[in-house]
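Hey, does this match?
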Amino acid sequence: MHALIVVAHHDPQSLTHAIAAQVAAGLEASGHTYEIADLAAEGFDPRYSAADHRVHRHGAAPPADVRAEQARVDRADALVLAFPIYWWSLPGLLKGWIDRVFVNGWAIEYGPDTPVTKKLRHLQVHLLALGGADDSAFERHGYAKAMRTQIDHGIFDYCGAEVVTSQLLLDSEGGAAHAHLNTAHTVGRKVFAAETVVG
């Protein structure tokens, strides 16, 4: 089976990139294939434009860069997102990728007189979010629940995709980095296993 690993970090030496590499190594060790979409290195434009709005409102054909990203997701049986947590959410680059790629007509289908049809029911999603704060800060302020509400449910469940892994890799600037790399390798090995990894 095949996975698309989407990385949203400007620094190729970052822990986020190392996490993505460990997921890839785990997938390879389990006999699966993968592609890495490095949004920063590839220069993906996250800005939602008038052309994107025409897709949403009028069913226009998506711009070429969006169609290319949709084709990458279409080739995948699983989608893995590796990203740093910025202001308790996705970084702008990754949010813009979702805003532009997961559009009406492809991820969902709806209109003024029709209910939403979820079109990504075939897709498994694995989320690996790196944060500098520790577990207690996330729990104390309700950030973990808020992130799952807005990302797991608000984006992927809305499109019908199954979030199999939703892992907060916290205290990443402290001593937890090595453990996070091990977790990422395990997630990679189990991407296509029945076992769910929820942190």
Remarks:
- The CA atoms of residues 1 and 80 lie 13 Å apart.
- Residues 2-198 form a domain with the Rossmann fold fold (CATH 3.40.50.360).
- The chain has one domain: 2-198.
